[in-house]
Amino acid sequence: MKFFLDTANLDEIREAASFGIADGVTTNPTLISKEGNVDFKQHIAAICEIVKGPVSAECTSEDTEGMLREGHEYSKIAPNVVIKCPLTRAGLKATRKLSDEGIRVNVTLCFSAAQAIMAAKAGASFISPFLGRLDDIGENGLLLLQDIIEVYRNYEWKTEVLAASIRHPIHVIEAARMGADIATMPFKVIDLLFNHPLTEKGQAQFLADWRKSGRK
Questions:
Q1: What value, to the nearest 5°, has the Cα angle with vertex 97 and ends 94 and 28?
Q2: CA–CA distance from 55 to each of 48, 72, 78, 113, 148 (Å)?
């Protein structure tokens, strides 16, 4: 399973890249806005310099023509830019046209298996079911992920399943168990994946014993 970082913060992206586990980055208008008054295209270009895998740049237009215009513009920023379109009627129309032109599209804001089927049929390169947002309203986001993976395995669709809106390590582990192609997560979740009290205890004990031996 590939790990994408769900952030627009360059320091977080550099740190994750230094671990050797950052396979890509997903951004959205909210994440970009958190970085202050940055130039959008320059910021995406900076991310693409750090991470050579797919970097999602999201359209903000609501109509198909606007999304196509943005998709064409953003795809020129760097070869690894992926255009992010919402799972709306206009978004799927744009997805079909961009995909037919060889521009990869990440269809976002997926909350049902039916929507995921539509995205795959429209030629999406990635489908992003939002696990955490479903959990937030009392539904089980992992069940949606399982349904999508099961349906996709029945066909020869090339759409990769990208588990999104990940809140904690359990989401990551279960997504991997199910066979999701990608998990995209905030840096804080990546940081939590390192943690286990026995690792910390064991390391402290090893170092203490080494110091007791008088070695340097």
A1: 40
A2: 7, 15, 9, 24, 23
Encode pLDDT of 131-153 as tens digits: 999 999 999 999 999 999 999 99
Residue 4, pLDDT above cutoff 80 = yes
Angle between helices 64-74 and 40-50 in degrees, nearest 10: 50
Confidence label for 39 from pLDDT (cuts 50, 70 and 90): very high
Length of the chain counted residue by residue: 216
Please say whether the beta carbons of 96 and 116 come within 8 A.
no
**Catalytic annotation, residues:** 84
CATH architecture under which domain 2-212 falls: Alpha-Beta Barrel (3.20)
Residue 111 CB coordination number (10 Å): 18
pLDDT in tens, 183-199: 999 999 999 999 888 98
DSSP 86-106: ESSHHHHHHHHHHHHTT--EE
CB 185 within 8 A of CB 3: yes
**Residues 6 or more apart from 60 whose CB is under 8 A from it?**
29, 70
